[in-house]
Amino acid sequence: MKIDLTETNSSKINAALVKARRDIGTPAIGMVLTLVIVTDEENAYDALKSANDASHEHPSRIVVVIKRVSRSPRSRQGARLDAEIRVGADSGTGETVVLRLHGELVDHAQSVVLPLLLPDAPVVVWWPDGAPADLAGDPLGALGQRRITDTYSCEDPIGALGARAAAYSPGDTDLSWTRVTPWRSMLAAALDQQVLSVASATVEGESDNPSCELLAMWLADRLQVPVRRMPSGGPGLTAVRLETKDGAIVLDRADGALATLCMPGQPDRSVALKRRDTAELLAEELRRLDPDNTYEASLKFGVAKLDSSAPPAEAPAAEAEAPAKPEAPAKAEPKRTAKPTKKAAAK
């Protein structure tokens, strides 16, 4: 069922939701959270489709906020709210409210969304694209216990990681981090099988893919070893190599679907490591509403590296090589010191 409301308000929207549930015979609310999607017309369809697919695992009220910025100064002075309500088969397993804000109402979206939140239920805010620099400081972001963004959609994905780290607040997360969950699980399981000391690591992937940088930062933070970042043709992450004294542990995924795990003293094995769509990533993030401390540590580990001249993941390797560079000049200096000048002075 779909209901269109023009020039409406939050009170009328709530009344229409109750009436729509009664009309389809489901007056009870069985939803576990409110998912607020802040997007534009261009990305609204894809974002809503992913949210509806994720609602099969997490029944929720989905509130889509679309800000329609007026072009003329006279139109900006007015304020209008249009809404589209979807319940039943048109809204996954929950219910959907699509809000289109016009005029001055664009700057006060939180006042429209607040009355539509489910009572006594967690709130998650998701920016599929165009996320603010400070997620928790944003008026809509302040409504949520969990704030989801995707640095992969940014114009400068690698630079956006530094901005996310600088303005990080507990509850922030990134779908670029969610994409590396299977990689982190596979690598951790490989190291649990054999007690090996990792000396260095290499991460291969697309040069502008923030998931590659986050995985490299996680390895450098957890293993405290130099990590190199090697560009490849993709798709996405392609390989991780951990160097040990007994040989290399290699997780190689060249086709984006099936990976090969190579470990010292063991036969190579094939593991499923397919690239997941947005609905699967979103469903994973909605499973946990507490702060992700591992993401925080990995993200903040890369702040200094992102601000330096060296690449984020190569900074640990540069630090490890730094002591070796002065050794050659230090040994060569005695041969060129003041001894020849002393002999010359004696003559």
Automatic annotation (TrEMBL):
Residues 337-347 have a biased composition (Basic residues). Residues 310-321 have a biased composition (Low complexity). Residues 322-336 have a biased composition (Basic and acidic residues). InterPro entries: G6PDH_assembly_OpcA (IPR004555), OpcA_G6PD_C (IPR046802), OpcA_G6PD_N (IPR046801). Residues 51-165 form the Glucose-6-phosphate dehydrogenase assembly protein OpcA N-terminal domain. Pfam families: OpcA_G6PD_assem, OpcA_G6PD_C. Residues 170-299 form the Glucose-6-phosphate dehydrogenase assembly protein OpcA C-terminal domain. Residues 307-347 are annotated as: Disordered. This is Glucose-6-phosphate dehydrogenase assembly protein OpcA.
